[in-house]
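Bug #2210: token dump truncated for F-box domain-containing protein?
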Amino acid sequence: MILRLESNLHSMPHSKKKQRLHKDAAVATDDGGGDNSTSAIDRLGTDMFAHIFGFLPSKDIMRARLNNKMRLAAKKTIVPDADFRVYNEAKYNCMAAMTSALPGLQHISLRSLGCFRHIKYNDGEDPDVQEAVRTANWATLDIEIILSFRRLHSLEIWNAPMNGSYSFLFNYPLLKILRIRALDYLSKPKWDLGMLSGVPLLKELHLHDNEFLNGNINSLRVLKGTIEKVYISNCRRVQGNFMDLADFPRLKELDLGLTDVTGDIRQVGEQDFLALETLILPNGVYGAQGYEFQNISDAADVAKAVYSIKKQRPALLIRDWYAYLSKNSVDWYEGVDSDDERTPLFICLVEAGSRLGYRWESESGHSCEVIWLDPDPELERESSDSEEYIEQLHHIESRVFFRGFFQPPTEEEYNLQCKTR
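Reproduced locally. Full output below:
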């Protein structure tokens, strides 16, 4: 009966739905009647309707609200995981209608409202003054209506035309996913990581290209028990030490690229970041990918630390790790001439099968000898693993240009090596 009713609600035109409801109501007897005289629809309660509506897209639920019972059921409905996107005035008006008709909406995405339309959301607290003056005569939409959706599980703010601080947007006790990007020139929201205390169940945090995002990643500790993914990239005002997140038991993905976060990769211990599968750190972290060493002698300890992290967490994706010697280092030189690309002043990880090591190489791939940190695997020659390892090892050895050198040669040794090749 439920499946048949759902099909009818989904497929019948409005007029036919109303006719059917009126007809069923007329058939009902004064004494309540039996199954044969009582409408199947009338026998369903609001909770059952709410359950049925939960299988429909939001637009179909809005169309199915044919009487008071169905309207009440829609208000109680937990709307499916469909993403409702607001990208123009019409969509905004739909969202406004849903605030009372469908407050159980769980996923909302506030997007750009269109270029050159002179439409914006109302300014928040402490707005950028010049932007506020420039847009003073624009049509303004009330962003606070979003507070009606108290069951939100996912909120995305993607280049929405906003200006100032909107702390109320971080007051969702059931929120699981938060995505904010403010790369568009019309988007000037001010955020602070301390606002995350209002979303205690958050699992995923995605903050990208936020010029006005401030705060210390230590503020994420309020999410220690729930957070699984943290992506804070190109947010230059975000500070802190990445090790403040080391004891998060569920943290699988951590990307802090292009932030002002610091730390030391050598401090990562065996019991730190136990669930981690992805790690991207800014070059302000000592030994992070892209880090600039001041001395050649500093690199070995860092490479060994990265190796240790990788070995303790085989699923961790750091195979593309590299660092290089700073041009301000006393060890740095240009080689034969400034156009020479063979100076091996980059250090990177090397893999052959399950065997890990590191080596110095140039931008063009001219490398020193590999410093293996794993022993040569004792595999049978006939096994496919052994064949793959030998093939990879042969490829690695074929790129060695500076034979006998396990770290960059001096400038004199380099010039001599190049002349003899």
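Output looks complete on our side. The CA atoms of residues 1 and 304 lie 66 Å apart. Marking as cannot-reproduce; reopen if the truncation happens again.
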